Amino acid sequence: MSEDFWTVLENEQTLENIRKRPGMYIGALGLSGFENMMIQLLDELLKLPDSPENAQLNIELSENQIILSLTCKKNWRVDQDNEFGITPHLSLQVLLALSEQLGLSIETPKKREIRIYQETALVKSANMASKIDDYRLELAFTPNQAYLGSKQVSYFVLFNRCQQLAMLYSGLAINLSEGSKQKNHLCYEQGLVEYIFQKDHALTRGIRPLVIRTAREDVLIQAVISKNPSASIRDSFVNGHLPIEGGTHMDGFMQGAVDGMNRFLEETNRMKIMTIENFPERFDFVLSIQVKRPRYAGAVKQKIRNPELYKILREAIAEEVFRFLTRYPSWYVS
């Protein structure tokens, strides 16, 4: 690991700013902020591997501590932004600033570096030869109760987010445990299709979902649309994060789906009946995009506001939906 990484991580001014105004980074103090911090940490750490689908994430909760490890086979980008502008520095700085104690180990096939911090101050460091061929990040921390409260983060909250991540990155293996109380292994080979099937009304589900994988103007797009008269799922993810209020990407996606379906109906001499209002009533859908520079509204990234995403998603989804319906017209009318 380069010295630049540790220098940035230990920047005193940044750590002081986080401790002075933690709400700007995690949205709130106490348990709510603790949960936000953990979700942000998981989201950003999974941008480290070149192939998160081949990585393994382990999370263990105890009464006063959380232990986490991330292992991958291929090289990762700890020292620099990846192609989508993600750096782990800030999430780790927030963790360091708001922890009573933090132990951090970063290991590559060449060497292992360990740092132990107490109230943001470095108290011990060590470098040694590596004994593995993988890339591994390990951390153990005790939350500072002055910022994060005295309660442990909810297992249920972490389980829900880990399940989402395992479905977003099909093949990613996640092990979540809380001592001997409970343990879950999460790995989903069908990705977003299983995301829909885990949450929908199965009895009214259509035979097969419409699966979209495409790219346009450096935006990677994955989506699943499933026919269901009892539809209730309308979720979207941006670089693995769930902006709960949607945004321009979701608006463009929905309009594109409506455009593609109405074009199909028109060209097959049917009445154009699909609208933004009735589309979510007839179809479950989940959208996942990777974008280089996402711009959010709110400290905890509640809504995407990149104006260009509306046009990109609308055009791409309309094209993919129309192409699918042209090949499989019975999907819509069945």
UniProtKB/TrEMBL annotation:
The taxonomy runs: Bacteria, Bacillati, Bacillota, Bacilli, Lactobacillales
**Protein's name according to its UniProt entry:** DNA topoisomerase (ATP-hydrolyzing)
The first-level EC class reads isomerase
Alphabetized, the UniProt keywords read:
ATP-binding, DNA-binding, Isomerase, Nucleotide-binding, Topoisomerase
GO molecular function, one example? ATP binding
What organism does the record attribute this protein to? Candidatus Enterococcus clewellii
- List, in alphabetical order, the GO biological process terms annotated in this UniProt record: DNA topological change
Q: Which domain of life does the protein's organism represent? A: Bacteria
Residue intervals passing through the bilayer: none
**Which E.C. number(s) belong to this protein?**
5.6.2.2
Identify one Pfam family in the record: DNA_gyraseB
Q: Which PANTHER family match?
A: DNA GYRASE SUBUNIT B, MITOCHONDRIAL (PTHR45866:SF1), DNA GYRASE/TOPOISOMERASE SUBUNIT B (PTHR45866)
Family statement: Belongs to the type II topoisomerase GyrB family.
Give all residue intervals belonging to the DNA topoisomerase type IIA subunit B domain.
Answer: 232-329
Q: Which reaction does it catalyse?
A: ATP-dependent breakage, passage and rejoining of double-stranded DNA
